[in-house]
Design goal:
Elements (H helix, E strand, L loop, with lengths): L7 E2 L2 E5 L2 H15 L1 H4 L6 H22 L4 E7 L2 E10 L3 E9 L8 H16 L2 E7 L4 H7 L3 E5 L3 E6 L5
Parallel strand pairs: 5-6
Antiparallel strand pairs: 1-2, 2-3, 3-4, 4-5, 6-8, 7-8
Helix pairs in contact: 1-3
Length: 167
């Protein structure tokens, strides 16, 4: 079941990720989301790109294997790739596996709008929204502003959850 069956969310068009065709975009997207880590990488740019390629492929493989039936979508804006949204429906929750926006659209409220749409969908179904975030990731502040609370910590990643307030 797709969270957004009409293929639209917060002004973005959703289209299913095509693993091979979309891999160059996904590698670029992953690299842009991890730019702060790039400063600590000792290799040259080609080695970084190779690492990002391996990690983007591994991430896609992991999501497909660990979350069968998850929606793995490319966000499009004005006909161009603008990000990725991966969601997995469970009976009690919608899991946000990945949400990332291209650098040129970051900081404009798009991520918050997408998450609010996921939260609205979950609330309408009586579900929670769950996600994981690396503790130092700036997105953590967004999640906290939206009402997510930390429910677990493995030393690297925080497990966060949002639930609608009862009426």
């Amino acid at each position: 079941m797709h969270v957004f069956p009409d293929g639209q969310v917060a002004g973005f068009r959703l289209r299913p990720q095509r693993d091979q065709d979309d891999m160059p975009f996904l590698v670029s997207l992953m690299s842009s989301a991890r730019e702060a880590e790039r400063a600590f990488f000792p290799g040259d740019a080609s080695h970084w790109r190779m690492l990002m390629d391996q990690q983007a492929r591994a991430q896609t493989h992991h999501y497909r294997a660990a979350y069968p039936g998850a929606s793995m979508d490319i966000l499009e804006h004005d006909g161009q790739g603008a990000g990725r949204l991966c969601l997995h429906q469970r009976n009690d929750a919608i899991l946000v596996l990945d949400i990332v926006i291209i650098p040129g659209l970051r900081g404009r409220g798009h991520g918050g709008a997408i998450l609010r749409a996921v939260m609205d969908a979950a609330a309408g179904r009586g579900q929670a929204v769950r996600l994981h975030v690396i503790g130092h990731n700036p997105a953590r502040r967004l999640y906290e502003r939206l009402g997510f609370r930390t429910v677990g910590d493995d030393g690297l990643r925080l497990a966060m959850e949002w639930r609608a307030l009862p009426h």
